[in-house]
Structure prediction request, 391 residues.
Amino acid sequence: MNEALLRSLTPSVLGILVRRGADFAAAEDAVQDALVEAVRVWPADPPRDPKGWLITVAWRRFLDATRADTARRRREDLVDEEPAPGPAPSVDDTLQLYFLCAHPSLTPSSAVALTLRAVGGLTTRQIAQAYLVPEATMAQRISRAKRTVSGVRFDQPGDVATVLRVLYLVFNEGYSGDVDLAAEAIRLTRQLAAAIDHPEVAGLLALMLLHHARRASRTAPDGSLVPLAEQDRGRWDTASIAEGVAILQVALARDRLGEFQAQAAIAALHADAPTAEETDWVQIVEWYDELVGLTDSPVVRLNRAVAVGEADGPRAGLAALAALNDSSSGSSSKGSPLPRHTAVAAYLHERDGDLTTAARLYAEAAQKAPNLAERDYLTRQAARLNAHRSR
Prediction:
């Protein structure tokens, strides 16, 4: 069974059903039923036209469901609309599905779940396992999302920026369950790049490839985090780096800079350095300045403070951090301290030689860490500095 083929056909099959008049929620259910039937039938009897087979089975499942709760006249109209067997239509509605699944009326978590199911072709169980929630909870989330967008016109223009944010959320989940969400996000972004010529789509794809290239070196055999400066660069995926850089260069040449292109440029500079010591931090600061201008994000300003500390020395970095603290950007949108702010302060104080303050801040940062791996890493940093001071 070619699971990759099934998942790649999912958006176009769903799009065709919707264009024939099926409600999005009902069409998505019918396509899922067809996928299940394909898994059962294809190993023994593979079809000559997989897409056409899926369309036929999904449409019949949709009609079966419709007969149960629709008036006789509408039922007959739908039966009349069933096409004769033959080659599947060549129309590709993938882009419209991306827009629909990332509709502004959806919460980010609902948009992610619906994208993975309707565009990615994942099952509810796979998505639930990836996000570590009960299958019933994920099923309810997807069902609510489908009801929310069912009244949206399928040909309504969408917002590329919203779609990209949803795909980046998927990418940042990494790997859990039996689904590699980072790889799935790259696949979906490639698919989007094939459907629309947009420099920011290319920028996001380049960013994902450049980050994913370092994946094997990010953790030690015991599962502990390995910071960028200490990673074995010989384990980086040079093919992914080369592809990401090539995609980025084409996007930047169009002179329509966006935030994902700027982030990818920073990642490319890290990937280009043979050693951590040879990193071009001055140019990285310049790209962070571009990012601040594009987003004015407090997270970007925090990362810029780290880069300034590397380019101009730890005291310059601490000054940039103090400026962030003094501005209204020094906290998240809900007014709480920025994630990893304390860890950045600890690192810069250590670089400046103030080990007592750094040890205290590392310990504080460990208590605020968003996951166990980061907490363990920060705790070890605090213990290392305390041991050094006690000698």
About this structure: The radius of gyration is 25 Å. DSSP finds 19 helices and two strands in the chain. Confidence is low (pLDDT under 50) at residues 332-336.
